[in-house]
Amino acid sequence: MKGILRILTVTGLIISSGNYFSCSNENSVEPVKNNVSGKIYSSTKATLSNLQVTIQNKATTTASDGSFSLNEIVFPYDALITDASGHFKTLHRNLNVPGVDLMMSYIDRSSLTNLEITIPDSIFNNDLSILLIFSDGKNISNYKYTDRFTLPSVISMGLGYATFPYTGKLYLLTYKLDNQSRIISYENFGVSEDIEIAPGGNLNYSFTSEQISFNPGEIDVPVNINSTGNTNFVFCQYYIGFSKEKIYNGIFHSMQTFDDQFVVKIPDGLPLQCYNYLNSYSNNIIGTGIDQYLLEPGAQNIFTVTDNPAIMTPADGAVVTDTTKFTYTAGDGEGIYNIIFYENGFVTSVFQSSASFEYGDVKDLVQNKGSSGQLNWYVSKLGKITSVDNFTEEFFRSQKSFKTISDVRNFRFK
């Protein structure tokens, strides 16, 4: 009897499925459709205009503030972002929310804004290194480091890609280094008034001696970074920021260490809240990684590097078909995967939660006109991120994060 019930149950499911997909059935259930809206950002959280967003058979172009909206979308859905040249594409797969912010991985970065900064002569005469940070206090943090040996009279800072005006402040911090590039002391600190940044062109700003007269103290923070059985800690760099969120552009090369136990000298007594970070670099024979740690004075700052995903299939140089499986190991940490395909100036980026896909899933996206029939690819993992739906929000909000990268392989297609 149980066997008969099981057969009836399965048969009922088959009949139900047939009714669901039948066009001739007057009582067929239509898929639920929703409107989808959001914004498109760069990896530095600049809003991006004039990009095409395609979901299913509908397309639109982002407005000046990066916003877009499309109606009657069946869930779940994939969202494809394409720049005007068609050379850069980003696909977010299997989304399930009506309101979503998305990231464009690669963009044409021709619209840069440069800030030309004049520093008082007293700084140049005191054998000091200079760190300049432009930050909006949220996500945009641009850095310019100038060592004591190559001080120019005017320092030029690129503020990255911006398509929408934003307002921020310019921070200046000077310090002395020993012969091994370790910080001995902090000497000057100052901050500008609000500066509005618009895309393109150059802006000028001059610090006065009074603005940078504050002399910070110092605190020593012991740090221990552990390797894993697969991945080795290589070195790290110290960053300071005035935003609660992730630090992005530029390199603050004030402290570099190749030891897994060391001391970071951070500024003390600044008149503004600051955040101290380490970017830890690691590698193994099949990939690399960057972990960002938030330093906490007075706490045990003990960290462990994150293992990267490793490509399993296809083999390097393989010929692929639509059914070829692309697979890779999970890697450490909670996160999502970013698969990059590139060739001859074309770059396609795919964000997804799964550790595999078939070539037919991305074939039309990654094969470009005039292709040589060969593509390079690799996989990175970004965390801590709970899902593709929350990816952009969590990516920008995270103070502790990682990005691990596999080795690069190539494949051929017919």
Task: Summarize this structure as a short list of keywords or feature phrases.
Immunoglobulin-like; 414 residues; mainly beta; single chain; 14-stranded mixed sheet; 31 strands; 4 helices
Protein described:
This protein is mainly beta and 414 residues long. Among the domains are: 30 residues; 71 residues, Carboxypeptidase-like, regulatory domain (Immunoglobulin-like); 103 residues. The chain is 9% helix and 48% strand. It contains 4 helices and 31 strands. The strands form 6 sheets. Strands 2, 3, 5, 6, 17, 18, 20, 21, 24, 26, 27, 29, 30 and 31 form a 14-stranded mixed β-sheet that branches. Strands 9, 10, 12, 13 and 14 form a 5-stranded antiparallel β-sheet that branches. Strands 4-1-7 form a 3-stranded mixed β-sheet, with no helix packed on it. It starts with a helix and ends with a strand.
Q: How far is the N terminus from the C terminus? A: 54 Å
| Fraction in helix | under 10%
Overall shape: it is: globular
Quantity of strands, as a count: 31
Mean pLDDT: 84
**Sequence stretches where pLDDT stays below 50 over 5 or more residues:** 1-24
Q: Please state the CA-atom Rg, rounded to the nearest Å.
A: 25 Å
Relative strand content: over 45%
Can you summarize the main beta sheet? Answer: 14 strands, mixed
How many distinct helices? 4
Which secondary-structure class do the elements indicate?
A: mainly beta
